[in-house]
Amino acid sequence: MDLFEKCYGYTEAKDAIRSGVYPYFIPMTKTEGAESVFQGRRLIMCGSNNYLGLTTDPRVQQAAIEAIQQFGTSCTGSRFLNGTLELHEQLEHELAEWLGKEASLVFSTGMQTNLGTISALVTRGDIVVLDKDDHASIVDGARLAWGETRRFRHNDMADLKRVLSSISEDKGKLVVVDGLFSMGGDLAPLPEIVALCKKYGARLMVDDAHSIGVMGGGRGTAAQFGVTDQVDLIMSTFSKSFASLGGFIAGDEPIIHYIKHHARSLIFSASIPAPNAAAALAALRIMRDEPEHSARVNAIGDRVRKELSAMGFNIGHSVSPIVPIMIGDTPRTILAWKTLFDAGVFVNPVLSPAVPAGQEILRTSYMASHTDEQIDRALEIYHKVGKQLELIS
Q1: Domain residues for 98?
Q2: Rounded to the nearest 5 degrees, what angle is found at the Cα of 212, between the Cα atoms of 112 and 296?
Q3: How many alpha carbons fall within 13 Å on the CB side of residue 225?
Q4: pLDDT at 94
Q5: Which of 26, 235, 303, 379 has a 20 to 30 A CA-CA distance from 83?
């Protein structure tokens, strides 16, 4: 059998492209953050993870420019060998301080952070326990680990208790959850998870990729619930509120030191270039010194959730600036995405297997730099398209 046979037989995406309803890999010509240009048309961007709107902040841009001038465009080596800059260590120091942890470690991407951290910690005889809605990077990190993976129903504390209570006491246990779930916009109930982890001797890692900068005054989900000191590891990315590219893990110094010397995705990858580190550091300082950005994006999220619900849309259990519109089948989701795109609003259609079949959604998300007028217009378009497609009555 030819290994490539599966490739030659894959036509689903090309069929969608030919029919004009392919929603992915659409090239962007220009972005101003809250608005972007696609195919010569300006759209309100309601599908970005640029929650604080800092990708176009002049201070962040200038920090990246100055770093290029000082260090060039690449480190051309791994953190382990020649790729560690003083800038990386300064960023790690300020991240740990911001989150209230002893130490942090910067990886080249958020994906690599989860792959490296989980596979380094969960070894033979250990068990990693995942929420069924955890991000793919967490799932793949568990796959790479030599230990066993078990899963519990999304945010179901009785099911988490069932899983943890079934594990013998002599096993090492790591529970990994998203803090703010990227599709549903809901939060993990960290106080209850912390209590169960304590009862059954498990360690807890929280993926706060979508939460840092947004929840807890910008410090994330653990800070939102007041349990930072009881969460063992906090992970996040630079590709969202930090307006850059990369990721990090934060926790007690001995744990971070161990990960630093055992995470293959860190040791065998080139470090993030200086402009990315400098941009992330500049964004962190804005996040820390100007809490109004976090307050603004949450105010917008509150407004959008309230108004979409009043229109009759099902937005699930969102409590954040990530606001899903539940549709429930692929053809209607694609049609709704295309109709909104043509009307001037960019959102993300999320289909199976990214969500379970029958739970397809439009993922909408908002940023602090959206103006009231842009949100007014987006809401008008949602209402018009919802009526037109009979998504609302």
Answers
A1: 58-289
A2: 140
A3: 20
A4: 98
A5: 235
